[in-house]
Amino acid sequence: MLPAATVKQLALDVGFHACGIAAATPLTADELGLHRWIAEGNHADMRYMERHVAMRHDPALLVPGAQTVISLLLGYKPSCYMCGDNRIAMYAYGDDYHTGIKQMLFRLIAAIRQVQPGFEAKPCVDTVPVADKHWAVRAGLGWLGRNTLLINPTYGSLCFLAELVTVTLVDSYDLPVANRCGDCHRCLDACPNRALQSGPNGGSRLDARRCTSYHTVESRASRLPESLQRRGYAFGCDCCQLVCPYNMQAPVSVQIGDAQLSELQSLEHADEATFRRLTRHRALNRINYAQWQRNIR
Ligand code: SF4
Ligand code: SF4
After folding, report:
1. DSSP conformation letters of 101-134
2. Which of 37, 196, 229, 233 maximizes ligand 1 atoms within 8 Å of its Cβ, making it the mutation to test the pocket?
3. Is residue 126 annotated as a catalytic residue, yes or no?
4. Closest ligand relative to 186 C-alpha
5. Nearest partner of 146 among 154, 156, 138, 155, judged by Cα
6. Which ligand is nearest to the CA of 42?
7. CA-based, 20 to 30 A from 206: which of 13, 43, 93, 167?
8. What is the pLDDT of residues 232-265, one digit of tens each?
9. Is the backbone of residue 267 left (phi > 0), alpha (psi -120 to 50) or beta?
10. β-strands 143-144, 196-198: how paired?
């Protein structure tokens, strides 16, 4: 049986900011809330959300015999922000997190094998149907805020989430922590499109059909809705995160230099070849040049 304390220390050693561990018992329909969210059409054109719903509930459908989900968190709060027109959401300032975090997950697997030879785990970072934020809640890394994201008491919601799903048992599992949003509604009030709506039991739901982040990143439509209030954003939107007190007090995780910010700002005037070159290794490569042109127009 794997010692949980050792796994957590190894996770910090490879560079993650926090690690929690949950038993891989399936998420309940109430916990995930996915059926209802989809039935209401809140996922807009993100048809991939309709696939693998059962797997999103039950990690054993992804890794047969799964016993444990090791949930990992990496903060991304930058040292400075873009402002003005054609802004980019903070999570996309740096290198493509999929690549960097995958490498960290492989390093963590290798480190755990030093303690437990033969250890195997499925590394998950956004590209497999695992309900990241719900596993992070189960693993005690935070709670679901009214911005519908995981809120970690230290790093707020400005963090990437990843998992190792494994058949290996761990000697102790974490428990969820209490929701500490309290009476705060700042994120709901800050959304210029009313995409965040209060839900039952003090929760909330995100309607992607109204969300700048959805329209500028996920939507392939040739035009953005006329009614969309973007507050200058051309890729993603941070309006509901910037006002969150947990994000305000979060430590800076990534130092951003003037050169990097000016490179991002130069995208506004980039031709297609330059756009491709500058975004090749960034999360910005989620969109193509035509989408970028649509967004900055
Ligand atoms: S990302 Fe922007 S548009 Fe979407 S819910 Fe948050 S504030 Fe609203
Ligand atoms: S802004 Fe307030 S309500 Fe929204 S997630 Fe942060 S603490 Fe919770």
Report:
1. HHHHHHHHHHHHHHHSTT---EEESSSSS--HHH
2. 196
3. yes
4. 2
5. 156
6. 1
7. 93
8. 999 999 999 999 999 999 999 999 888 888 999 9
9. alpha
10. unpaired
